[in-house]
């Protein structure tokens, strides 16, 4: 698939932003090699031209489809790059109050800076004997997997 086929009208991208680090925008006109700008519309409705260097265009990162937003494993994302990771973690933590996310076999944790009631005996027993990935990401899932591998 040619790069220009990905940067078509209605697809969404991430553009750098001084205040929010990354902003989402929708492409308003298909990109063609040689174009010096992408015509975009920000989420607030503002239209803008995103300038490109025609000698070697540095196209913005593509945004994942909405169906993948909030995935519990970052490796399930179509596009795995800084803005996609940060957005997914923000959606899981800020909107869903979930501090754990997998990235393959790695557990990513966002510090909530407060006590959470996700570490009691009931939770320990729930993860006991389960395979990693069968339940939501949790430190107990990683511990159970380590224990099973050690015992094997």
UniProtKB/TrEMBL annotation:
<keyword id="KW-0009">Actin-binding</keyword>
<dbReference type="GO" id="GO:0005524">
    <property type="term" value="F:ATP binding"/>
</dbReference>
<keyword id="KW-0067">ATP-binding</keyword>
<dbReference type="GO" id="GO:0016459">
    <property type="term" value="C:myosin complex"/>
</dbReference>
<dbReference type="GO" id="GO:0000146">
    <property type="term" value="F:microfilament motor activity"/>
</dbReference>
<dbReference type="GO" id="GO:0016020">
    <property type="term" value="C:membrane"/>
</dbReference>
<dbReference type="GO" id="GO:0051015">
    <property type="term" value="F:actin filament binding"/>
</dbReference>
<dbReference type="InterPro" id="IPR036961">
    <property type="entry name" value="Kinesin_motor_dom_sf"/>
</dbReference>
<keyword id="KW-0547">Nucleotide-binding</keyword>
<comment type="similarity">
    <text>Belongs to the TRAFAC class myosin-kinesin ATPase superfamily. Myosin family.</text>
</comment>
<dbReference type="InterPro" id="IPR001609">
    <property type="entry name" value="Myosin_head_motor_dom-like"/>
</dbReference>
<dbReference type="GO" id="GO:0007015">
    <property type="term" value="P:actin filament organization"/>
</dbReference>
<keyword id="KW-0518">Myosin</keyword>
<dbReference type="Pfam" id="PF00063">
    <property type="entry name" value="Myosin_head"/>
</dbReference>
<feature type="domain" description="Myosin N-terminal SH3-like">
    <location>
        <begin position="8"/>
        <end position="60"/>
    </location>
</feature>
<protein>
    <recommendedName>
        <fullName>Myosin motor domain-containing protein</fullName>
    </recommendedName>
</protein>
<dbReference type="InterPro" id="IPR004009">
    <property type="entry name" value="SH3_Myosin"/>
</dbReference>
<keyword id="KW-0505">Motor protein</keyword>
<dbReference type="GO" id="GO:0005737">
    <property type="term" value="C:cytoplasm"/>
</dbReference>
<feature type="domain" description="Myosin motor">
    <location>
        <begin position="69"/>
        <end position="152"/>
    </location>
</feature>
<dbReference type="InterPro" id="IPR027417">
    <property type="entry name" value="P-loop_NTPase"/>
</dbReference>
